[in-house]
Amino acid sequence: MGLSGANMLLKKLLTHRSLNLLGFVACTGLILTAFWFQYVMELEPCPLCMAQRIIIYASGVLFLVATIHHPTIVGQRVYAGLILLFSLGGMGLSSRQLWLQSLPADQVPACGPGLDYMLDVLPWAEILSVMVRGTGDCAEIQWTFLGLSIPGWSLVAFIGFGLLSMIQMQQRPGTGS
To answer: Residue 16: which residues within 8 A CB-CB, separation 6 or more?
Structure first.
């Protein structure tokens, strides 16, 4: 198989539908991993972790809907643009958590109440504020792999989703349907 044959095969494999399916499968894997951390390893998620999960859920739903819908190029760019916005939000949240984890112990914000308590007592606006700002709980490094903590790996995933959506926004009609 020559270079042109490999290039044509690559174009056939990298369709909008296959890229959206890849994004959905990645989101599903991330959520399953989060559940494994929470229920098997008994690592309690902090407010920033929960906010990142919500963004991964939303991105996964968008990837799945785009896979099933299989829109025209304009529709695909709309889906990709929405996923890019969610990815940027996730990058911001995971970067904030990495910053909290890098603070010296005396500069870490105070720990807050658990999410269950906040849901029972606080208004939604305050819950969302705490989920975005984070608490002292968010500064705790509970797990690492290859030198990256959980929010570090989340940042890698959000960057990947952002790149995937930008690739789809750049594809020309007829090259990635």
So the answer is: 66, 70, 76, 168, 171, 176, 177
